[in-house]
From TrEMBL, chains A, B:
Signal peptide: none annotated. Residues 80-158 form the Acyl-CoA dehydrogenase/oxidase N-terminal domain. InterPro entries: Acyl-CoA_dh-like_C_dom, Acyl-CoA_Oxase/DH_mid-dom, Acyl-CoA_Oxase/DH_mid-dom_sf, AcylCo_DH-like_C, AcylCo_DH/oxidase_C, AcylCoA_DH/ox_N, AcylCoA_DH/ox_N_sf, AcylCoA_DH/oxidase_NM_dom_sf. Keywords: FAD, Flavoprotein, Oxidoreductase. Its EC number is 1.3.99.41. GO terms for molecular function: flavin adenine dinucleotide binding; oxidoreductase activity, acting on the CH-CH group of donors. Gene3D superfamilies: Acyl-CoA dehydrogenase/oxidase, N-terminal domain, Butyryl-CoA Dehydrogenase, subunit A, domain 2, Butyryl-CoA Dehydrogenase, subunit A, domain 3. The keyword Flavoprotein applies. Its cofactor is FAD. Coiled coil: none annotated. It comes from Glycocaulis alkaliphilus. This is 3-methylmercaptopropionyl-CoA dehydrogenase. It catalyses: 3-(methylsulfanyl)propanoyl-CoA + oxidized [electron-transfer flavoprotein] + H(+) = 3-(methylsulfanyl)acryloyl-CoA + reduced [electron-transfer flavoprotein].
Length: 596, 596
C-alpha cells in the first residue's frame, strides 16, 4: 500500500522563494501569517491529512454512500469522525472573515491546506469543500440577517453548504431551468422542483445543510434573466438560530458513479420547501457565480492534488520495482534487475508528472495570492490587476489543471504496469476520481468558451493585455541573465504564439463565432502552457539566485533540471496548438449532423 | 441506454473500396471470400454481437467473476450460453487452418468480426480471444501429435487457451521467471510455480483450458536463454483425446480490477502439474512470441473497438441532448435549445473520434491483410514485404491504437458531461475497460522500445525502408491529382519528419542507448500518425474516384471531410513529436533517483 507525504517543502518553496509572500505582511490578514505561522499550519494540516483523511480514502471508495428509505444518507465509516476533527481543529475557518468567526488568514494558506485534503481524500474534501463557496456567495449577496444567521455556523463547519443548479434537462444551459419559487407573502418562498448531481446534498456530517438553489419566481422572464437565488436550509433555523423544523427538501436518490464514491451525489427533491431570496429577484445568477468561481478554482486544485498523490505513488513504485536493466549498463549490479526508474520511458512519465505538479502548485498558489490581493491590496491598481487575473485565469485553472492533471494521473497509473489496473495499488481509484474534474462546475469545453467568449474581451481586453505586459516585463527585466536565458526565450516564444492566437481569435472569431468555438480548447491549452512557462521561469530564476547565494539545498538543482525538461518536452506543443487554433471552424463544422 | 450498431458499412468501405480485397481472390482461402460471402458473414456476425454479446456487457461489468472455494470460477450470467452460441456458430474457426477444422477464411474477416465482439463485450471477447493465439503458437511450434490433439478442439472452441508469462516479481523482464519444470523421464515435466494476471485462466465456459506456460527446466541457463514453453491442460486428455484427469493447476485468486470485470483475471498455481514441452528446451520464448504478437494485434484492435462503441454512444448523445444555442444562431428554433452537436467544441471531440475509428479500422484491416499475404501470397517478394510490415507495425498497432483509442473513449465520455460519469450511460465502463489496453501484452512503453530497439534495425532496416518507399510511391503515383494534393502533401511532410526522426535515432541512439529510449514513445506516435496519414490518403483517393464515377453514396463526401479535418487537426502534432525525439535523453535523465 503506497503512502502520501504532505508536499510542504515544495509549498514553502513556492510561498517563500517564488512568491516571497512576506512582502505582503503589511496587508490585513497577512500580518498574522508570519513564515513561522505558515510553516506551523502547513505541518499541522499535513499531519491531519496524512493521518486522518488518507486512511479513509480507500474506505470511502469501497463503501460508498447509501440512501436510507427515510431519505437520510449513510456515509463511509469514519467520515463523520474525521469531519468533526476537521471542524474542531478550526480548519474550515482558516481564511474566512473574522467578523463571522473566521481566522482571516490568507487564501493561499487555505489553498495549500486544501491541496492536501484533496490529495488524501477528494471525496471527503467535497463535503466541507462546497461550504466555503456557499458562504462566500452569501457574504457577497446575502442580507445582513442572512449573514449573521448562516455565516458563523458555515465557517465553523457546524453547517455545510451545497450548490443547486443542474436539473435533469439542463446543466450548462441554465436558461431552461424549471424549479419554481412561489412567494408566501411573508418574504419567504415555496421552492419546488428537482435538482440533480448535488454533491454532498445529504449527509449526517454537519448539523444542518444550507442549500443555495437557483429557481424561477412565478411570472419571471424566460431564460437566464428570470433566475433567482434562494437559501433553503435542510432544517429551518429557529429563533435562536439553531436547526429547527425539517424543511421540504429530501434526497431522492444517489448517483452510481465512476469515482468519488465516498461523496454523496444526490438527486434533491424540493417540495414546497421554504426558501429565502438571496439578493434581488431575477438576479440570482450573478451571486451564484461567486460560488461557481470559487468552485472552479477548487476543481482546478483537485487536478493538481490528485496528480501529486499519483506522482508519489508512481515514484515510489518506480524506485522499488525492479525489472530489466538500464540501456546503458546495470545500475543495480548486485540485484537481479534495475529499478524501473532507470528506464528512459518511465523517466519520461515521471518527469511529466513532476513538471505538472510543481508548476501546477506554483500556479494555484499564485492564483490564490491574486484572490487575496484583489480584496486586500492597499492600492487600487493592484486590486484591479488581481481581479482581472482572477477573472481571466479561472477557466484556465479549472480546465488546464484538470486536463493535464488527469493525464498526469494516467501516466502514474501507466508506470505501475499491470499493478496499476488492480484495486490493490490505489492509483486506479485516483484515475476514476480525477475523471469528474474535467466535467463538473462547467465542462472543460465550457471553460474554454468562457475564456474566448467572455474573458478575453472583458474591459476592452484589459486583463489579457495586462497579462501579456507582465510576461514581457519578466523577460525584459531579466535580460542578460545568461543561465536564465533558455527560460526567457521559451516564455517569450510561447507568449508570442499565444498573442498570435489571440489576434487570430479577435479577428476571425468576430467574423464567424464558430471560429472562436473551434479554437477554444487549443487556445486554452496554449494559454495554460504560457502560464506554466512563466511559472517555470520564475522558479528557475529564484533557484539560480539561491544557488548563487551558496545554498546547497538540493531542491534548487532539481527545479532547474525539471524546468529544462519542461522547455524541451512541453513547449513543442505550443506550435501544434497554434496551428489548430488557426485551422478555423470550416472543416470542423463541414459535416451535417446526418452525415455522421 | 445507448445501443451499438455493427459498423458493417464502414468495414465494407475499407475491404471493398480501399483494400480492394477481391484482387486477392486467387489466393488460397481468399477464393471462398467472395464479396457476397464477406457481406453475409459480417451481417450475421454483426447481429450476433448486437443481439447476444452487447446485452451482456453491462451484466458482466456489474456481476464480475467469483472464485469458489474449490478453485472453480463463476462467470457472469449468460456468458456460458453466449460462448456456446459462439462456438456452435463456428465463429471461433473462421480463419483457422482447414487441416484442423478451421474454415480457412482470410484473417481480415476474422478481424472484422473480432472488432464487433470486442466493441460489444470486451470482457467476454477475451475468453475465446486468447485461444486463437495459443492455437497459433502450437501450430508453429508444437509436434504433430500436439497439433492433432489440441488444435481441432481449440479451433472449434470446445477447449480454450491461455498465455502464462507473468509472475509476481517479473512481467516485462521474463529473464527472472522462476516457474520450474522437472523432467518426469517419460517426456513429460512437472510444472511448479505461480503465474499472475492470467486472463481467462479459469472458467466453466469451455470443456478444457489449455495453458501455455513459460517455465525453466532444472539446470537451464539463467535469464531468457533458459526459458521453455509447456502446454499444461487443465484436464489431461485421455487416450481418446477427451478431457480426463484433473491436472495440478488451480486458480488461487482473482484480481480486483478497474475494468473488464466480466473476465476472470487469475492467479494460477502450478503444483507439479503435468506439462508437455512445446518445441525445444530453452527455446520457448520464440514460440510464445507467436502468441504474443497475435495478442498484441488483438489488443490494438481493442483500442479501436472500444473507441467505436464510445463514438456511437457520444454521437447519439450529441444529437439527442439539447442544451444552449449554436453560436451562429438557433439550429432547432422550435425547441427550447439546440442539440449539442451544433457546438464546435463538441464537434471537435466527435470529429477526433471519427478520424480515429475510421483510420484505425482501415489500419487494422490492412494489417490483417498483411498477415494473410505473409503466408498466402503467391510471390515471395510480397510474402517478405508483408512479413516485414507485420513485424515492424505490430508495436504501432498495439500502442498507437490503444493510446489514441483510450483518448478517444475519454472524449466520448466528455461529450456526455455529467452523465458520462454515471454508470447509467455505460460509457464510463468503456473507459475503465479500455485502460488496460495500454498496459497488457507489453506496456505501450515496451512497444515503443521494441520498435526503436529491435524493429527498426531488423534485416538491415529493410522493413522501415520498404515502408518509406511505399509512402513515396503513393505520393509519386498520384502526383497531379489536384483534389488529392492536400493528402499527398500531408503524407509527404509527415513521412519526411518520421524519416528525420529515424535518422536521428540511428545516429544518436547508437551514441547513447538512452537517447533511443527517451525518443521511443514520441517516435512511435509520429510513426502512427504517418500510418494514419497514409490511410487517410488512400481513403480520400478512393472516395474521390467514387464521386467522380458518379456515386451519390454519402459516405464518400463524409470520408473526404473527415480526412481534411485529420490533415488540419492531427498532423500539427508531428512537429511536436519530432522536436521531442530530437530533445534527447540528457534532460530526461538529468536527475538522480534521489533527487526526485
Amino acid at each position: 500500500m503506497p503512502s502520501y507525504r504532505a508536499p510542504i517543502r515544495d509549498q514553502r518553496f513556492v510561498l517563500n522563494d517564488v512568491l516571497n509572500i512576506q512582502q505582503y505582511s503589511n496587508l490585513p490578514g497577512f500580518s498574522d501569517a508570519s513564515a513561522d505561522i505558515v510553516d506551523a499550519i502547513l505541518e499541522e494540516g499535513g499531519k491531519f491529512c496524512e493521518n486522518v483523511l488518507y486512511p479513509l480514502n480507500k474506505v470511502g471508495d469501497h463503501e460508498g454512500c447509501r440512501l436510507q428509505p427515510d431519505g437520510e444518507v449513510v456515509v463511509p465509516n469514519g467520515f463523520k469522525e474525521a469531519y468533526d476533527q476537521l471542524t474542531e481543529g478550526g480548519w474550515t475557518a482558516l481564511s474566512a472573515d473574522p467578523e463571522y468567526g473566521g481566522q482571516g488568514l490568507p487564501h493561499y494558506l487555505n489553498l495549500a491546506f486544501n491541496e492536501m485534503v484533496t490529495a488524501t481524500n477528494m471525496a471527503f474534501g467535497m463535503y466541507p469543500g462546497l461550504t466555503g463557496g456557499a458562504a462566500q456567495a452569501l457574504h457577497v449577496g446575502g442580507s445582513d440577517e442572512q449573514k449573521q444567521l448562516y455565516l458563523p455556523k458555515m465557517i465553523s463547519g457546524e453547517w455545510s453548504g451545497t450548490m443547486n443548479l443542474t436539473e435533469p434537462h439542463c446543466g450548462t444551459d441554465l436558461g431552461m431551468l424549471r424549479t419554481k419559487a412561489v412567494p408566501n407573502g411573508d418574504g419567504t418562498y415555496k421552492i419546488s422542483g428537482q435538482k440533480i448531481w448535488i454533491s454532498a446534498g445529504e449527509h449526517p456530517m454537519s448539523q444542518n445543510i444550507i442549500h443555495l438553489v437557483l429557481a424561477r419566481v412565478e411570472g419571471a422572464p424566460a431564460g437566464v434573466k428570470g433566475i433567482s437565488l434562494f437559501v433553503v436550509p435542510k432544517f429551518i433555523p429557529d429563533e435562536n438560530g439553531n436547526p429547527g423544523k425539517r424543511n421540504g427538501v429530501k434526497c431522492g436518490g444517489l448517483e452510481e458513479k465512476m469515482g468519488i464514491h465516498g461523496n454523496a451525489t444526490c438527486v434533491m427533491n424540493y417540495d414546497e420547501a421554504t426558501g429565502w431570496l438571496v439578493g434581488e429577484e431575477n438576479k440570482g445568477l450573478r451571486i451564484m457565480f461567486v460560488m461557481m468561481n470559487e468552485a472552479r478554482l477548487g476543481v482546478g486544485l483537485q487536478g493538481l492534488a490528485l496528480a501529486e498523490t499519483a506522482y508519489q505513488y508512481s515514484l515510489a513504485f518506480a524506485k522499488d520495482r525492479i525489472q530489466g536493466r538500464s540501456l546503458t549498463g546495470p545500475k543495480n549490479p548486485d540485484g537481479p534487475a534495475d529499478p524501473i526508474i532507470v528506464h528512459p520511458d518511465v523517466r519520461r512519465m515521471l518527469m511529466d508528472q513532476k513538471v505538472f505538479v510543481e508548476a501546477g502548485r506554483a500556479f494555484t498558489l499564485w492564483t490564490a495570492l491574486q484572490g487575496d490581493l484583489e480584496h486586500k491590496a492597499a492600492d487600487e491598481e493592484t486590486r484591479t490587476k488581481s481581479g482581472d487575473y482572477m477573472a481571466l485565469l479561472t477557466p484556465i485553472v479549472k480546465a488546464y489543471l484538470t486536463d493535464k492533471g488527469y493525464d498526469s494521473v494516467s501516466k502514474g497509473l501507466q508506470i505501475h504496469g499491470g499493478s496499476g489496473f488492480t484495486r490493490e495499488w490505489g492509483i486506479e481509484q485516483l484515475l476514476r476520481d480525477a475523471r469528474i474534474t474535467l466535467i463538473y462546475e462547467g465542462t472543460n469545453g465550457v471553460q474554454a468558451l468562457d475564456l474566448v467568449g467572455r474573458k478575453l474581451a472583458m474591459n476592452g481586453m484589459r486583463p489579457i493585455n495586462t497579462f501579456f505586459a507582465e510576461m514581457d516585463a519578466f523577460v525584459a527585466d531579466n535580460k542578460g541573465n545568461k543561465e536564465l536565458e533558455p527560460f526567457l526565450d521559451g516564455l517569450a516564444a510561447t507568449k508570442a504564439k499565444l498573442q498570435k492566437a489571440t489576434n487570430w481569435l479577435v479577428e476571425k472569431g468576430l467574423e464567424n463565432f464558430d471560429n472562436a468555438g473551434a479554437a477554444s480548447t487549443d487556445y486554452l491549452h496554449l494559454f495554460g502552457l504560457t502560464c506554466f512557462a512563466w511559472m517555470w521561469g520564475r522558479m528557475a530564476k529564484v533557484s539560480l539566485e539561491k544557488i548563487a547565494e551558496g545554498s546547497d539545498d538540493p531542491i534548487y538543482a532539481s527545479k532547474l533540471a525539471t524546468g529544462h525538461y519542461f522547455l524541451q518536452r512541453w513547449l513543442p506543443d505550443a506550435d501544434a496548438h497554434l496551428a489548430k487554433v488557426e485551422a478555423g471552424a470550416d472543416t470542423m463544422m463541414a459535416l451535417t449532423a446526418e452525415q455522421f
